[in-house]
Recover the amino acids of this structure.
């Protein structure tokens, strides 16, 4: 007796889930597994399953891991505000961080991504620091000191705890130099230098 379409769709989703969880743990991905993952998610959709945000995210991550960044990234950025499993959200953030560092995104895509990241309520300290200083760096590269100052003023509070205050002061000093406010920049830079020996012991993740 032939299986009902809904049962078939469930089997495709289950296989896709197993493949995804296997690839999530790999440092070097298996292209054949990723192709199967995408195929099974598409087969489940063809059989009537409406793709969930988690499914869309997994498919987009598979495409990204296959080297198809242009196809995957436009789908990943909007998913940051969707309901996703913690491991999938972390995988998306890591993938997008890599994309920005490798400069595979257009400037407007970078700005959109950074804004999305900085609006996330439970953004980790390392990602918050990376997103803020990257946004500042990109604005200053374009000669837009007002935009750089806006990033620090609007999002710098994420770095205002005692453990992270030096990172906020560093950005204040960088922007002040760019604004030619040298008298304001030097004291901030000096305070950062005096803070460095007392920074968090686990700060290696912030040094990027």
């Amino acid at each position: 007796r032939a299986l009902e379409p809904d049962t078939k769709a469930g089997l495709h989703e289950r296989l896709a889930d197993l493949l995804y969880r296997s690839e999530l743990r790999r440092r070097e991905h298996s292209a054949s597994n990723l192709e199967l993952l995408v195929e099974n998610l598409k087969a489940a959709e063809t059989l009537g399953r409406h793709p969930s945000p988690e499914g869309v995210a997994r498919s987009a991550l598979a495409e990204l891991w296959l080297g198809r960044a242009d196809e995957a990234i436009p789908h990943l950025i909007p998913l940051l505000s969707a309901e996703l499993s913690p491991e999938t959200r972390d995988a998306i953030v890591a993938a997008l961080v890599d994309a920005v560092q490798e400069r595979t995104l257009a400037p407007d895509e970078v700005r959109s991504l950074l804004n999305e990241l900085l609006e996330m309520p439970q953004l980790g300290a390392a990602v918050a620091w990376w997103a803020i200083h990257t946004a500042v760096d990109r604005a200053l590269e374009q000669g837009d000191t007002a935009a750089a100052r806006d990033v620090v003023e609007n999002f710098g509070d994420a770095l205002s705890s005692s453990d992270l205050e030096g990172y906020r002061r560093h950005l204040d000093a960088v922007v002040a130099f760019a604004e030619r406010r040298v008298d304001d920049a030097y004291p901030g830079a000096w305070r950062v230098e005096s803070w460095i020996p007392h920074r968090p012991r686990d700060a290696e993740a912030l040094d990027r």
